[in-house]
Design a protein that fits this description.
By secondary structure, the chain is an alpha/beta fold. It has a domain at 4-168 and 202-227: 3-Layer(aba) Sandwich (Rossmann fold), CATH 3.40.50. 39% of the residues lie in helices and 17% in strands. The protein has 11 helices and 12 strands. It has helices at residues 13-24, 57-61, 81-105, 140-153, 176-185, 204-216, 234-245, 256-263, 268-271, 279-283, 293-300; strands at 4-8, 28-33, 43-49, 54-55, 65-68, 111-117, 129-130, 162-167, 169-171, 201-203, 222-226, 275-276. The strands form 3 sheets. An 8-stranded mixed β-sheet has the order 4-3-2-1-5-6-8-11, sandwiched between helices. A two-stranded parallel ribbon has the order 7-12.
Length: 301
């Protein structure tokens, strides 16, 4: 009998790609969605309502492993007080609902795997390389990621392993690039701020492969950085993307004060960054397939 993987946030960019990979590898996949959709071969949909605190319990009961990807887009809107609460609640509340079902039926999972972010180390421009044991930040993103991971740890009595995938900028045909690409195709893309802020990235295929590794590799436990360990800055990224679409950046850098004016506190995710080490995941034998930024961008666009 096929093992079943339940994905929260399974209709998003990462979730759709991950579901396809898992099915290709012989798993059945269940997805929690706000609206009921027609089931397909090896792909099943269940309903939940985070605000009302309700869900189809069968989704959890049939799962051998759960991958928690659900969460409001951090960069979707300005960070008002209400928006910050929505960002946090959308990551924490679903896990509490799942835990309640696991506890109710004394259900045991092979693994509970949660997304997280490299923002857990803070937003700052520095050459310091963060490993999984590096100090964690107390800014907004750092706090969100810590609470995101902490609520996952609460599932431990009902899961053999808890895995936390701290993700960098995900590149592929969709997601972040879909919003940025038109600007560069119109030859209006440029460096942002100083351009020195680091932008750790990962190709969508490599990210999905890491989640697959988390499902199948029983040695995988705890937190793992999911981003290429290189020196990509905003300046390098912007110039490379411009080259891929066929032009050389001609506009001056976008001043930081303009970014702050339009985005408010949210601007920090664009104007600051951090470097991370991928050594821990590689020590398990995982090999990134996409390690060259230009080749990755060509594949993505």
């Amino acid at each position: 009998m096929k093992k079943n993987i339940l994905i929260t946030g399974g209709t998003g960019f990462v979730g759709q790609n991950l579901a396809r990979l898992l099915i290709e590898k012989g798993f059945s996949v269940s997805i929690l969605s706000r609206t009921k959709k027609s089931n397909q071969e090896s792909l099943f949909y269940y309903c939940w309502d985070i605000e009302k605190g309700t869900m189809d319990e069968e989704a959890v009961l049939y799962a051998d492993c759960i991958i928690h990807l659900a969460g409001e887009n951090i960069a979707g809107k300005r960070w008002t007080k209400a928006r910050k609460k929505a960002i946090l609640d959308s990551r924490v509340v679903p896990v509490k609902l799942i835990k309640a079902v696991l506890k109710k039926y004394n259900k045991k999972l092979d693994a509970f795997i949660t997304a997280s972010g490299i923002g857990i180390y803070g937003a700052y421009n520095s050459s310091q390389v963060n490993i999984e044991d590096s100090p964690l930040a107390n800014d907004f993103l750092g706090t969100v990621c810590q609470q995101w991971e902490a609520v996952a740890d609460e599932v431990l009595p009902f899961a053999t392993r808890i895995v936390k995938v701290r993700t960098g900028l995900v590149l592929g045909n969709g997601g972040f690039l879909n919003k940025l690409l038109p600007l560069f195709q119109w030859k209006l893309g440029s460096v942002i701020g100083s351009g020195n802020q680091y932008m750790p990235w990962i190709h969508i295929d490599d990210l999905c492969a890491i989640y697959l590794e988390a499902v199948t590799n029983e040695q995988m436990n705890g937190a793992y950085n999911a981003a290429i360990q290189d020196n990509t800055t905003n300046r390098v990224f912007s110039k490379t993307l411009a080259k891929v679409v066929g032009y050389k950046i001609w506009l001056p850098p976008v001043p930081a004060f303009l970014i702050r004016m339009f985005l408010g506190e949210l601007a920090v995710i664009i104007l600051a960054g951090q470097k991370v080490s991928s050594a821990k995941i590689e020590q398990l034998g995982f090999q990134f397939q996409y390690t060259d930024l230009e080749a990755t961008l060509k594949d993505s666009v």
